[in-house]
Inverse folding.
């Protein structure tokens, strides 16, 4: 199994809503990542988890709250988002946090209205 | 600050022609990654280049890495329409907190007959 699975694929939420994005991998990877990608832009790193601990937080606003309940799951909790937060949110995983190939999920297309 | 620069950013090619995409980076990384992204889709790993002088080929695409020049190239041979996509190079960003991929801006390739 070489898949990273993200749910939902599409999400529309209001600025007062609370929602969560989910990411799952069963490759035994110990590093997991959240990236944000705006249209016609490269992916931008948001968070890195290594062995279920937050390793890197790229100065992301607190309305985005990551969580890693176990080594296979990564969540991104969303609260009080702004329309400019609308983007493709990509989850990725790699075998270790030591410069290895990252596998990406299909992404969640988020629209904030 | 790590910089990853791709050029060109846009490339319009005729079928059957050859062309090269360049990726320059500012860190002393010895690993470089190429990804493909189709519109509205996620990132697909194309090549992982692990050392100086590495060369990998898959179909009409060939990637190489020169760590001394901090340069990678993605060469397209006899382009076909199916190669139309956005191509990203990415480099490991390493600090005390951890490691993650940092992407170039991407090269949008359009192949027409």
């Amino acid at each position: 199994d070489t898949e990273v699975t993200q749910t939902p694929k599409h999400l529309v939420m209001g600025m007062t809503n609370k929602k969560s994005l989910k990411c799952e991998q069963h490759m035994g990877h110990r590093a997991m990542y959240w990236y944000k990608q705006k249209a016609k832009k490269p992916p931008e790193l948001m968070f890195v988890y290594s062995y279920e601990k937050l390793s890197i937080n790229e100065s992301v606003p607190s309305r985005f709250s990551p969580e890693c309940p176990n080594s296979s799951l990564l969540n991104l909790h969303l609260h009080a988002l702004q329309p400019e937060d609308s983007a493709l949110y990509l989850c990725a995983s790699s075998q270790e946090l030591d410069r290895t190939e990252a596998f990406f999920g299909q992404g969640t297309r988020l629209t904030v209205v | 600050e790590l910089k990853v620069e791709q050029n060109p950013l846009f490339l319009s090619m005729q079928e059957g022609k050859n062309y090269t995409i360049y990726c320059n980076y500012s860190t002393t990384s010895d690993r470089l990654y190429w990804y493909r992204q189709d519109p509205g889709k996620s990132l697909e790993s194309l090549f992982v280049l692990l050392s100086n002088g590495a060369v990998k080929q898959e179909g009409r695409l060939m990637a190489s890495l020169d760590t001394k020049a901090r340069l990678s190239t993605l060469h397209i041979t006899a382009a076909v329409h199916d190669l139309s996509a956005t191509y990203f190079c990415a480099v490991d960003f390493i600090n005390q907190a951890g490691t993650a991929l940092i992407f170039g801006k991407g090269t949008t390739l359009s192949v027409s007959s």
User: Anything to note?
Assistant: DSSP finds no helices and eleven strands in chain A. The first strand of chain A starts at residue 4 and ends at 7. The interface with chain B takes residues 31, 33, 40-43, 45, 48, 50, 55-56, 90, 92, 97-99, 101-107, 109 of chain A (CB under 8 Å).
